[in-house]
Specification:
Elements (H helix, E strand, L loop, with lengths): L1 H18 L1 E4 L2 E4 L2 E3 L2 E7 L6 H9 L4 E7 L17 E4 L9 H13 L3 E4 L10 H7 L1 E2 L5 E3 L2 E3 L3 E12 L13 E9 L2 E2 L4 E5 L8 E8 L2 E6 L5 H4 L2 H14 L3
Parallel strand pairs: 4-5, 4-6, 6-7, 7-16
Antiparallel strand pairs: 1-2, 2-3, 8-13, 9-10, 11-12, 11-14, 14-15, 15-16
């Protein structure tokens, strides 16, 4: 009887060791596999946002940790050395303050050297006067009409939250594979500038919105993922949106 109980206990311990998750020095341990969490830096500022909703979405991302900085104030942290502290930058700011030449140089060097980046919604408006941002993000919300690469573009516009259907156009990409078209309630942007160099993953036919709403871009050594949608909890709590966001971060860091 004692030998039988001992054998059962041994099996149970083996199963626990196989399937249990432990945290060890910031690492997730799964059986014999050690997974280092993706270290995300969230950049906000310049505009109010649904902090609880976005933080909840980030907190629920498997195998990830995040910290937040606010602009203006922390802009000097955005330089190549930040890659030693974080694996991916998530921009959700709407910054319009002036950047010094040194700060612009730091940003360019950071992205040129390879800094995985995810651009959400509000950040399309950031720094309209700095071409680097639209080159990295692959698009921009134009505050006023602009001429870009010899082409005239009208000012962009927005429409308060409406029901918008997201149609997956590239069903084979790692970010979108297996995700069906879905409808969400969110703010939409019209007349966006979108670079012809981006790879569009999803679109909408909503009459108030620009057609592409999800794309990837490559800026030198940096992978960039752009999500046009993402105004508040109606987006952040949408299961399909969350999955695209999580996958976008993983893709940007090269997983």
């Amino acid at each position: 009887m004692q030998q039988k109980a001992s054998a059962v206990l041994t099996v149970l311990i083996s199963l626990v060791g196989l399937f249990a998750f432990e945290t060890l020095g910031g690492l997730q341990v799964r059986g014999n596999d050690t997974v280092k969490p993706v270290r995300v830096l969230l950049i906000t500022g310049g505009h109010g946002y649904d902090r609880d909703g976005l933080h909840r979405m980030l907190s629920n991302m498997p195998d990830a940790t995040f910290k937040e900085i606010t602009l203006p104030g922390d802009q000097d942290k955005l330089m190549p050395a930040i890659a030693r502290q974080f694996d991916c930058l998530v921009f959700h700011d709407q910054s319009r303050f002036a950047l010094s030449d040194q700060q612009k140089a730091n940003l360019e060097a950071m992205w040129a050297g390879g800094m995985p980046t995810v651009m959400l919604h509000h950040s399309l408006i950031s720094h309209n006067d700095v071409p680097l941002f639209r080159e990295v993000f692959g698009g921009a919300y134009l505050i006023k009409p602009a001429t870009i690469d010899g082409q005239n573009h009208p000012a962009s516009n927005y429409t308060k939250p409406v029901d918008v259907t997201i149609q997956i156009t590239d069903k084979t990409h790692p970010i979108t594979r297996g995700i069906s078209d879905f409808t969400m309630n969110d703010e939409v942007f019209g007349n966006l500038y979108i670079s012809p160099k981006v790879h569009v993953l999803a679109q909408t036919n909503h009459p108030k919105s620009s057609k592409p709403v999800l794309w990837t871009n490559q800026y030198k050594k940096s992978r960039v993922f752009a999500l046009v949608q993402g105004h508040d909890k109606n987006a952040f709590d949408n299961a399909s949106y969350r999955e695209l966001f999580y996958r976008g971060i993983r893709w940007a860091v090269g997983e």
